[in-house]
């Protein structure tokens, strides 16, 4: 049975949704050495990561030595992409925290809430943020894992297994969507609206009433930036009020999400794990697979029930026989 295990401070999300996991690449999982009894199959436990030799540390040191001249201001010109991951930032005066999106994204606000006074570093893709932490370009990453309306962010569950990072905390961020447009544009002038697919889904009722065609893009702030740069007169964007201020857009409507309780839970990721204490509750996340057979899921869940361990969330992907559990312990 393969498993991935990590802990984070417990700040539960009140609403839970069913979810599925995408196929995982079994060779991309992180092999972890751990104490205790295990079956003949390998265990993949993210909390007790012990590097196999010094190859990764040597690689990181070599990367740092070879890239001392990389200018720190490069990130201000746009999101960090995969082409930047072979470069090192020289300014280490503040904690660098990676997030997915461009300036004005909700993820940027979540990163600043998780790490006040940090230097938020935009990344083009979720995977870029993971790789930036692993490559020592940034110190932390703050990435979404679950939304109270839209459910789980499947891609990041997958990436947690593919990369050697650890959950060291979580932060909840209230998402308040706005309908944005260029100055002089009225609601009746709009024909289309751009935003991230989750944001569009969270505002489905409002956008349907307005009769707008929805088009999904990589992130909410990116949509705002696009319509501002191209000075579009018949296209709006669903994004934050911060994005409206940054890109000089007009707010046509505020709080257009279908439910007033719209909260995204973000994970705080680091290269090194934390050791859970007893002074406060922690959340434990486990991902594991089971052999085919009658009652295998029942037997796995019984292990927790018999020990009075409360499960706050269970996600199953039966095609791969993969399960994700969140425990309140």
Summarize the structure in short.
By secondary structure, the protein is α/β, with parallel strands linked by helices. The protein has nine helices and 15 strands.
Structural commentary:
There is one protein chain. This protein has helices at 55-66, 106-114, 126-134, 154-162, 197-202, 204-210, 220-229, 241-246, 296-305, and strands at 3-9, 96-100, 119-123, 140-147, 151-152, 166-174, 178-181, 192-196, 213-217, 235-239, 250-254, 263-270, 282-289, 310-317, 322-328. The chain has 9 helices and 15 strands. Strands 2, 3, 4, 5, 6 and 12 form a 6-stranded mixed sheet that branches. Strands 9-8-10-7-11 form a 5-stranded mixed sheet. A 4-stranded antiparallel sheet has the order 1-13-15-14, with no helix packed on it. 24% of the residues lie in helices and 28% in strands. The longest helix has 12 residues, at 55-66. The chain starts with a strand and ends with a strand. It is α/β, with parallel strands linked by helices and 329 residues long. Residues 96-271 form the Prephenate dehydratase domain. This is arogenate dehydratase. It holds the Pfam family PDT. Its EC number is 4.2.1.91. Its main location: plastid.
């Amino acid at each position: 049975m393969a498993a991935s295990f990590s802990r984070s401070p417990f700040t539960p999300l009140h609403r839970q949704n069913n979810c599925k996991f995408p196929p995982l690449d079994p060779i991309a999982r992180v092999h972890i050495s751990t104490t205790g009894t295990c079956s003949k199959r390998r265990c993949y436990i993210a909390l007790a990561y012990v590097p196999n030799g010094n190859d990764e540390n040597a690689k990181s040191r070599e990367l740092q030595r070879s890239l001392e001249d990389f200018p720190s201001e490069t990130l201000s010109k746009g999101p960090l992409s995969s082409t930047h991951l072979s470069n090192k930032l020289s300014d280490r005066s503040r904690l660098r925290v990676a997030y997915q999106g461009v300036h004005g994204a909700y993820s940027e606000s979540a990163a600043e809430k998780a790490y006040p006074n940090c230097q938020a570093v935009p990344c083009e893709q979720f995977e870029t943020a993971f790789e930036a932490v692993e490559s020592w370009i940034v110190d932390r990453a703050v990435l979404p894992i679950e939304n109270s309306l839209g459910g789980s962010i499947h891609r990041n569950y997958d990436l947690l297994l593919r990369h050697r990072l650890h959950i060291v905390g979580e932060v909840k961020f209230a998402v308040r969507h706005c309908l944005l447009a260029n100055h002089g544009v009225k609601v009746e002038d709009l024909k289309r609206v751009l935003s991230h697919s989750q944001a569009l889904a969270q505002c489905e009722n409002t956008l349907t009433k307005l009769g707008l065609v929805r088009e999904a893009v990589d992130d909410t702030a990116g949509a705002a930036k696009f319509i501002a740069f191209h000075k579009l007169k018949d296209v709006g964007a669903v994004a934050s009020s911060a994005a409206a201020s940054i890109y000089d857009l007009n707010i046509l409507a505020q709080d257009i999400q279908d439910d007033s309780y719209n909260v995204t839970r973000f994970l705080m990721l680091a290269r090194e794990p934390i050791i859970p204490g007893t002074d406060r509750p922690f959340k434990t996340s486990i991902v594991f697979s089971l052999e085919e057979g009658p009652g295998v899921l029942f037997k796995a869940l019984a292990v927790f029930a018999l020990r009075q361990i409360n499960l706050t969330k269970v996600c199953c992907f039966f095609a791969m026989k993969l399960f994700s559990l969140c425990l309140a312990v």
